[in-house]
Amino acid sequence: MNATPLQARALYEEVADRLRQRIFNRELPPGAWIDEMKIAQELGISRTPLREAIKVLAAEGLVTMKVRRGAYVTEVSSQDLREVYELLALLEADAAEAVCWRATDEELTELARLHAELEAAADHAQHGSRERFFELNEAFHLRVLDLGGNRWRKQLVLDLRKVMKLHRHASLAKEGRVAESLAEHRAILQALQARDRQAAVDAVRRHFANGLQAAI
């Protein structure tokens, strides 16, 4: 079998990963035009895999294609953000409820250790270094999704979170938001440890409601 198609696919996926990271790091901010020629030269590739990568990001909602104008980093409106947060609240609350009845004690202990790392990273986040907090924050949410099962739910959440990341720096940069977010994660963990389904659902929904208020 000819291996060329697989190699081409691997290339555009790698390019998509690099562009996605540039978007999340604000090297390509919302509204920025994606200069295909310049980026292709920087990466040492032809424009074909770059265009395939842009299609991937467009499907994820991170890039918007404009007729006769090219590709632009998506600018998320307040309404878009509300809709994303509403869906994340529903999906992640559902996952938290499932965790209450299906997770083992050992898995909840592991989740508690992850939260302890988040607590330790919070002090650095409050003094300007937020990347580790972002990383652990997302790891906590994704672990809850893993423990809740249902790979389709997780895939939906992953796609929605890519859009949410376009605004995450702004939301957690607001004064006091890191501490609030940490307290909300603590409440989620406590509800899961108690296997209190309603408390877990309420804690997750409150977390996203507060996150939305900080983001808009």
TrEMBL record:
The keyword Nucleotide-binding does not apply. Keywords: DNA-binding, Transcription, Transcription regulation. One of its GO terms (molecular function) is DNA-binding transcription factor activity. InterPro entries: GntR_C (IPR011711), TF_FadR/GntR_C (IPR008920), Tscrpt_reg_HTH_GntR (IPR000524), WH-like_DNA-bd_sf (IPR036388), WH_DNA-bd_sf (IPR036390). CDD domains: WHTH_GntR (cd07377). Residues 9-76 form the HTH gntR-type domain. This is Putative D-xylose utilization operon transcriptional repressor. It comes from Tepidimonas alkaliphilus.
